[in-house]
Amino acid sequence: MPLLGYFASFWYAWQLVHVNYKQQVINSNLLNLDEFGISFLEVHRVFGEGSFNDLILNKYTPAQKKIHALNILSSNLTPANLHIIKQTLSSPEDEVRMFGYAIINKAEQKLAKSINVELELFKEANEKADEKQMALSAYELAFLYWEMLYSELSDEILSDEFMRQVHYYLEMAIDLLTKEFKKEKGWSSDHNLLFKLSRSHQLYGRYYMKQGQYEYAITELTIAQELNQENATFVLPYTAESYFYLGKHDMVKSILNKLSLLEINATIHPLVEQWKKSA
């Protein structure tokens, strides 16, 4: 038996060395290995390391690079970006200061033009007693005036007046949109109107939050959620914030735990995780 074992081992080793099989390469079209022979493109950081805010305020940054940065910020005029752009209005560099002013002025004019158009539509609808068009124009005006406040494009002197306009047109929009639904004899008869009504109540909630009236804000936000459950992911974070300012932390945690979709929101995800892990 030992002799048979030695013979079998020798035969197996001989097979491994001398016996060849035809190589077959299967092309699966999933991965092109030839691409790995090409070097990856080098990525250069145009603005270096650090924040845009530091870049704009740094007196050693070339004016051309500041203007390039402002041009990028102007493509997405969020409140944070507008805050950075506004800081260039006091820049000692004329070209940077004028470019920043041009961006803000253009944004203000665009909003003002939209407001004027809607005011004309509202006036015409009022003269014709067209309540549906009045409702739609009031809805648009409320959001346009709110955008003036939210984007900080309005002067501080005019902020109170814009808040009054938001309140005035929101109340009118909600009242008229509700009447339109009653005419249609069904809350689900016109999804577009239902969506606008839900968003109106949501904005009303944010209006009360800005005023520090969080109980009223929760009421309006709850109505907005009930009218359009699909919009809950956008409504409930404001509800949670209102409960937080009221000191009702259990409600905050309960709301955030129910909203699984918030986990894919990169901005709010860290906050959600903190509340989940809190006692």
TrEMBL record:
The UniProt keywords, alphabetically, are: Coiled coil, Membrane, Transmembrane
InterPro entries for the chain: TPR-like_helical_dom_sf, TPR_rpt
Q: Coiled coil located at which positions?
A: 112-142
The answer to whether UniProt assigns keyword Membrane to this entry is: yes
The question of whether Coiled coil is a record keyword is answered with yes
Q: Where are the transmembrane segments?
A: none
Q: What is this protein called?
A: Probable polysaccharide transport system component transmembrane protein
